[in-house]
Amino acid sequence: MPTKNAATPKEPSEDGVKWQAQKSSMTRDRILDATIDGFIKLGYSKLTTTQVADIAGISRGAMRHHFDSKKELIQAAIEHLHKKLLGIYFHNLSSIPQGLTGRELIRARVDAYWSYLNEDLVLVHQELCMTARTEPELKDIITVMVKALDDQARQSVLGSLDDFEEDADRLFFIIDITRFNLEALARGKWQLSLYDDQLVERQLQHLTLCIEQVVNDDGTTDLSKLFANYQNINQSP
């Protein structure tokens, strides 16, 4: 007696494949967000993959499906954190009112970076950088990631500020003046809580005036020698 042929399995529909990929991506992002949340609540050293799974509300099997090891998870989480940081910073830049010029525009850009530095995620990033000093595995990850973040941020800023389109050396010099001054100010505020609003405001005003000098420099002064060929100096190993 002839037997019936077994039913041929149906190929998953295109919509089904897309949904599975989207679902997998959403789960991955949930894990990475949970890892960052774990950094905030527990710190890098105490955080385990089991705790991340609990924070994310997923099984350990689902965790292992996406990340085989803690190192792989940490690397992906720091990259995820960097994308969030870039998003915050460029949102701040894009929120600067149109039509500002001169000192007002400089101050608005200074304020945009200062606002960025006071975000909780920036503090998390700074804590990871400090922890990396005594955690070799984390140091290996974060050294590469920070360099990539810095390069991406510089090129993105250069592409978004039309007034520096032909003067990258001057812009990168200004970026470093801003970073080194404001990040030091932010660390003092985080660690010591000694800086009141009046002191911070004076520092922001002073930085604005310093940047204005660099912006208006005609390229023939002692100041201009500091940012001449600065892009190449900055990229030196």
UniProtKB/TrEMBL annotation:
GO terms for molecular function: DNA binding. It comes from Oceanicoccus sagamiensis. Residues 48-67 bind DNA. Residues 1-20 are annotated as: Disordered. Pfam families: TetR_N. This is HTH tetR-type domain-containing protein. Residues 25-85 form the HTH tetR-type domain. It comes from the Bacteria. Keywords: DNA-binding. The lineage of its organism: Bacteria, Pseudomonadati, Pseudomonadota, Gammaproteobacteria, Cellvibrionales.
